[in-house]
């Protein structure tokens, strides 16, 4: 695989560029291009470039910045295939995003293999590679820090990457077990009315964690490790009084903890343990007036040595392009309502008085 020199000649005012790639292993090309060239079409649509293929040679034409990003993304995907890793629509979107953000670069005179030095979580089921700069920062934080807070909307990979890191560390022998926890039903942890034993009561609320586990491990291994206690599922209320040593501990939906619960959970951290706390502060289900334990913890701990905070935005949503637009639409409506209320407070106060009969 090598980059051929770009076409010579003066650039246009839009800095149009034509780049050439030669991809030497023809056997990889069908997976690289996708069925009916859908991967190439995806790259063209997202970067605004034109891709032409003749045999194992590719021509990339478009604005120079986008053309360079397309070149880097294609080389990154090709390198994944060389490592016998999967390339699908998600991987294509991730490579395009990372290239567009400058996290993947190539030198036309001396091209290097992209993604080789980018953060990745390697499990026995394959490598989980960052699909954006924030995911890359998240992977780096989980690899280097003992306590990581990850904040942001659904679909940004917070839970999936945390479970991937936990499984990778368990398989490497760096931790002895995985502990999964989440506030169930509500912050008060009222599980008694639900049928079944403890796991059956909590399982529906931990389904996203289970889904990620089954992606990382064969089903029989998940069942075996759950039975042996190597993987433990526990509601937040049952963490009190414990010390979690040599464990990778994940708490999901942490915005629905109270400050007291959050402090209790964080102080379970024992020797050789890692902890990841995920949440979305725009989705707090606590009673009105009750402060979120996640918000309280960030105010208290951000900047403390050994603690990392990673913030995802709507632009980091990697599930489906429509998910990002849905989140944007809800945020825009909430902002509009807030601005309307601030712009006309007397009317709002009058409406409140009329509704309670005091006007």
Task: Explain the overall architecture.
With 359 residues, the protein is of the alpha/beta class. 42% of the residues lie in helices and 17% in strands. It has 13 helices and twelve strands. It has helices spanning 29-33, 38-47, 64-82, 89-100, 133-144, 158-171, 198-202, 207-216, 219-228, 259-266, 293-301, 321-343, 345-356; strands at 2-4, 16-22, 50-54, 57-63, 120-123, 126-129, 147-151, 177-182, 231-235, 247-251, 274-279, 307-311. Strands 9-8-10-11-7-12 form a six-stranded parallel β-sheet, with helices on both faces. It has a four-stranded antiparallel β-sheet with strand order 1-2-4-3. A two-stranded antiparallel ribbon has the order 5-6. The longest helix is centred in the last third of the chain and has 23 residues, at 321-343. It starts with a strand and ends with a helix.
Task: Give a quick precis of the structure.
This protein has 359 residues and is α/β, with parallel strands linked by helices. The chain has helices at 29-33, 38-47, 64-82, 89-100, 133-144, 158-171, 198-202, 207-216, 219-228, 259-266, 293-301, 321-343, 345-356, and strands at 2-4, 16-22, 50-54, 57-63, 120-123, 126-129, 147-151, 177-182, 231-235, 247-251, 274-279, 307-311. The longest helix has 23 residues, at 321-343.
């Amino acid at each position: 695989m090598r980059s051929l020199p770009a076409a010579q000649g003066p650039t246009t005012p839009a800095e149009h560029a034509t780049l050439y790639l030669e991809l030497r292993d023809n056997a990889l090309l069908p997976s690289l291009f996708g069925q009916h060239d859908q991967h190439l079409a995806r790259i063209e649509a997202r970067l605004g470039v034109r891709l032409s293929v003749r045999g194992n040679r590719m021509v990339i034409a478009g604005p120079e910045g986008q053309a360079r990003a397309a070149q880097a993304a294609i080389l990154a995907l090709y390198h994944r295939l060389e490592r016998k890793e999967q390339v699908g629509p998600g991987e294509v979107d991730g490579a395009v995003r990372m290239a567009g953000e400058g996290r993947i670069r190539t030198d036309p005179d001396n091209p290097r293999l992209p993604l080789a030095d980018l953060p990745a979580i390697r499990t026995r089921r394959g490598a989980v590679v960052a699909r954006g700069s924030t995911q890359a920062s998240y992977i780096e934080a989980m690899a280097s820090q003992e306590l990581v807070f990850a904040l942001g909307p659904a679909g940004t990979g917070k839970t999936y990457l945390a479970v991937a890191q936990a499984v990778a560390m368990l398989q490497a022998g760096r931790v002895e077990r995985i502990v999964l926890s989440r506030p169930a039903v509500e912050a008060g942890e009222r599980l008694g009315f639900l049928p079944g034993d403890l796991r059956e009561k909590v399982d529906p609320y931990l389904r996203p964690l289970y889904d990620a586990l089954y992606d990382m491990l064969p089903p029989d291994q998940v069942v075996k490790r759950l039975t042996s206690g190597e993987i433990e599922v526990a509601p937040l209320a049952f963490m009190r009084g414990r010390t979690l040593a040599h464990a990778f501990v994940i708490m999901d939906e942490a915005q629905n903890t109270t400050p007291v619960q959050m402090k209790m959970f964080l102080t379970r951290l024992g020797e050789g343990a890692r902890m990841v706390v995920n949440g979305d502060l725009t989705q707090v289900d606590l009673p009105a007036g009750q402060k979120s334990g996640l918000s309280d913890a960030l105010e208290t701990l951000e900047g403390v040595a050994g603690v990392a905070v990673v913030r995802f935005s709507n632009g980091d949503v990697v599930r489906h392009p429509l998910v990002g637009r849905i989140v944007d639409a809800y945020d825009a409506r909430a902002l509009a309502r807030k601005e309307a209320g601030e712009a006309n407070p007397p009317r709002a106060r009058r409406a409140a008085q009329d509704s309670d009969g005091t006007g």
